[in-house]
Task: inverse folding
């Protein structure tokens, strides 16, 4: 039996009804306001673009996962965006190419993919984020990680934790400290990512085994990593990680999984993943990268739908019924100080059934 | 020569850069807040739905103007929404079918069409609106028209005017006062809409000529309409129009063009169009209608992009530069009272060039 109500929408697409929409609207505004307060200017790119510009600027986006169609105007293929980061990168590299650096931009909007992934059936999500264009230094990464935590907390997250990673770790080590034949680098990366010790040995990556045990709470994990790095090729990266972790302080729990690479294929030296207590899966990720033209950048994306689901529906709050013939000026004055009102459309309405908690009596709201 | 920057986006699709995005974000929030204050609960439908459910619930939506694609999951045709009204109607008739009436819902989101229309090259627009489900009375229409004016004013419109129309006027008159053969009704409607007196005569609609001159400022126009309505079949409609106009008072200029029908093919007895000084074209429209299942409803949609364009870029406001080594707590406190800050990433930055108006000196913001 198919529920005729839910069958009205395709799998992975859903309506947010009043209580959920209220919660999502509040969380979205709060996160945008946090980014704005740190000097990040909002940009609003379109829902639809040429597939080619979505695809080429940053290689992280698989266009086969996008909704695509032919543009009757240009006869070129258009795509519904699946990632706003790419669009912000395009804006930074074109319309804002001559804006002073560092350039701070933020965004919020819906993104969609034609197929859901295994972990998450949703095909449409709200994406929020910030990009710091012109720098991928530890200072830039520290600012971005802290902003991501602050935006997530503003959206209602508690018990936030951040997991750091070094996406180019294997490449860096393979060049000197733990030499690997070039043809083995991909295998070793894959098995490290899979955390499969047996397979790691089998592909000749035995020397990389200690990395599997260098994951955990930041201080301990970074010490183990330092112990592995006999030649000191990771010294600047480790200093960077410490600088970022210092800035986070008590606002989030920090862990390090230096060999984690899934989802960070396009990040350079630093990546991070965000979690919060009670919210399913990752709430966002970010890191350092380079734009198409080679310009360094650091940024993050948040997907707050699971957080809003975990927070539960927002309370509706007080609602004031305005009986027929009420004083319009009194009603306007009450709205100005924050009352939500519902005006009578006719006689015989049941104010309580309409969700009203108060009724206007002359110029006084009285509890129902 | 094609400008390589603008060529990056398909015709009719554009980025909102910081100053424009700031203005649009402010206007959108203000309009949503106005609807919320009047007890309209926000719903957030998805960007993409089955084409069939976008098409059938209200016949006003031409699916050939939508971006369409095949869903790999259901193998059915999906469409990118071109109108949120249809989605809100679906929600009212399904998930919220048993919610008490009158049901007040509002929405805001992007809509897209594959082809632009002649008057407006935009293929993506922000649509905001409210629907009052369960009533199409004059009281409902009065509430909706006033809310539309209030939302538009909150978004920054000044010099607002509202043009009323009676979408089913010809059908009503043709039944009794000004009888017409059934096969002539469409012709007469079309020529009245085109305001072509010659053609109107040619199709046998001479008796309808006075309607062409019953357009103008509300009071005079409604008197002329009353004079035409010898049989009084329009009496309840005219009373309704007066009731709605009375409620508007001084908040907008009211005109009446009783035979205007373009864009109101799916409205029942009442329709209205909104304009504001300095903003190109119509900013919105609305009226009474019936949902697929026959339930009466009244609503409006606003398209505020031209208004935001007319208002011009929003001022960036003060921006406080936080030099390297600044006190993080002082900075957080200043943000809490409304300062926007930009933190130094390194030495040698030019705060003024980054748009900063102030620099933090100890715990004091000082003008640069």
Result:
């Amino acid at each position: 039996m198919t529920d005729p109500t839910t069958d009205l929408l395709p799998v992975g697409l859903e309506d947010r009804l009043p209580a959920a929409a209220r919660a999502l609207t509040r969380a979205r505004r709060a996160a945008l306001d946090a980014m704005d307060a740190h000097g990040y200017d909002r940009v609003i790119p379109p829902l639809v673009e040429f597939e080619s510009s979505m695809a080429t600027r940053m290689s992280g986006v698989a266009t086969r996962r996008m909704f695509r169609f032919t543009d009757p105007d240009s006869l070129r293929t258009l795509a519904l965006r699946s990632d706003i980061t790419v669009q912000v990168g395009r804006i930074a590299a074109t319309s804002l190419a001559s804006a002073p650096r560092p350039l701070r931009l933020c965004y919020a909007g819906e993104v969609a993919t034609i197929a859901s992934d295994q972990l998450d059936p949703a095909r449409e999500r709200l994406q929020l984020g910030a990009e710091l264009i012109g720098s991928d230094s530890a200072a830039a990464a520290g600012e971005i990680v802290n902003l991501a935590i602050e935006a997530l907390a503003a959206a209602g997250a508690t018990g936030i934790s951040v997991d750091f990673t070094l996406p180019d770790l294997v490449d860096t080590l393979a060049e000197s400290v733990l030499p690997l034949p070039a043809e083995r680098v991909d295998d070793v990366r894959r098995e490290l990512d899979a955390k499969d010790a047996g397979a790691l040995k089998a592909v000749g990556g035995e020397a990389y085994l200690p990395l599997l045990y260098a994951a955990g709470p930041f201080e301990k994990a970074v010490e183990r990593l330092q112990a592995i790095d006999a030649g000191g090729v990771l010294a600047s990266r480790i200093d960077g990680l410490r600088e970022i972790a210092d800035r986070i302080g008590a606002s989030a729990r920090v862990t390090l999984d230096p060999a984690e690479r899934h989802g960070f294929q396009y990040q350079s030296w630093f990546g991070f993943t965000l979690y919060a207590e009670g919210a399913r899966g990752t709430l966002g990720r970010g890191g350092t990268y380079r734009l198409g033209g080679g310009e360094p950048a650091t940024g993050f994306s948040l997907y707050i739908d699971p957080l809003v689901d975990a927070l539960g529906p927002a309370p509706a709050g007080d609602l004031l019924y305005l009986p027929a013939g009420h004083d319009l000026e009194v009603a306007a004055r009450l709205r100005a100080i924050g009352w939500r009102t519902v005006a009578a459309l006719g006689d015989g309405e049941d104010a309580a059934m309409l969700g009203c908690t108060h009724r206007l009596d002359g110029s006084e709201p009285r509890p129902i």
Remarks:
- The CA atoms of residues 92 and 246 of chain A lie 30 Å apart.
